[in-house]
Amino acid sequence: MTEGWPDEALSRDDFLGGQLRLWQPKQGYRAGVDPVLLAASVPARTGDTVLDLGCGAGVAALCVAQRVPGVKATGLEVQPGYADLARRNAAENGTELEVIEGDLTRMPDTLKQRQFTHVLANPPYFDRASSTRVSDDGRETGRGEVTPLSDWVEMAAKRCAPKGTVTMIQRAERLPELLSHAARHLGSLEVLPLIPRKGRAARLVLIRGRKGGRAAFCLHDGWILHEGDSHPGDRENYNAATTCILRLGTPLLFPS
Q: Which of 24, 71, 66, 25 is nearest to 47 (CA)?
């Protein structure tokens, strides 16, 4: 039993090819491949500290911790039920994850005095000024923007240590807004478009900035996710490189 859900209202899903088995609500916000790709792109090393803002059930933070032994992971989550799921997921997978409940715009005192080597976030994708709210509160909190994107960037930068990184995943259509906010707080900005198939427009982007970075902005060649020109029916067809990230836990490296 997890706060907010009986076990029959949850599913236990495989991530990283079964290296992690994580509980999620059957109805509500459910993590797909996006937080896995985000986690794979964080350039963490053993001994680094990592903060996942809006960690949900802990998918991204736990994927980082699984990939990088010895990383010290923390998650901030505003919804108590999801925070409880993240704690349960960490415990049942034998992974250390500190989960703190709170709103990033009213940062809990336990985080205010701390900085992290890497901060990651998967902010809600949809600006509700131009989109429709969904009925499930958990899913709406995960998908519909209440806290402005500018606040996500500012709070991430504040919690990032000097020379550390902030990495986010977001819809491609919101990249101009995201870059505008990031440029106020971070340097050495770089963007990696995530392209469904060769010849298609990017739907998502990964953006990284460095606290105090001075390198010129870099727009990388896009990462293509799938094989072929179209989807071959009701089955996955990720290309080999993406499959290694999603199933084996290999890093998603920004081109050097």
A: 71
- C-alpha to C-alpha distance for 117 and 105, rounded to whole angstroms: 20
160-180 pLDDT, tens per residue? 999 999 999 999 999 999 999
| Nearest Cα residue to 28 out of 2, 6, 14, 9 | 9
Residues 6+ apart with CB under 8 A from 101: 76, 77, 78, 80, 83, 108
CATH superfamily of 7-248: Vaccinia Virus protein VP39 (3.40.50.150)
Residue of 51, 62, 43 lying closest to 251 (CA atoms): 43
- Reply yes or no on whether the pLDDT at 140 is more than 50: no
The radius of gyration of the chain from alpha carbons, rounded to an integer in Å, stands at: 17
Instruction: Give me the phi and psi of 149, to 5 degrees please.
Output: -60, -35
Q: What is the pLDDT of residue 2?
A: 72
- Give the residue among 159, 173, 208 at the shortest CA–CA distance from 54: 159
Q: What is the pTM of this model?
A: 0.91
For the residues 134-154, what does the mean pLDDT come to? 67
- Say how far apart CA 29 and CA 23 lie, in whole Å: 12
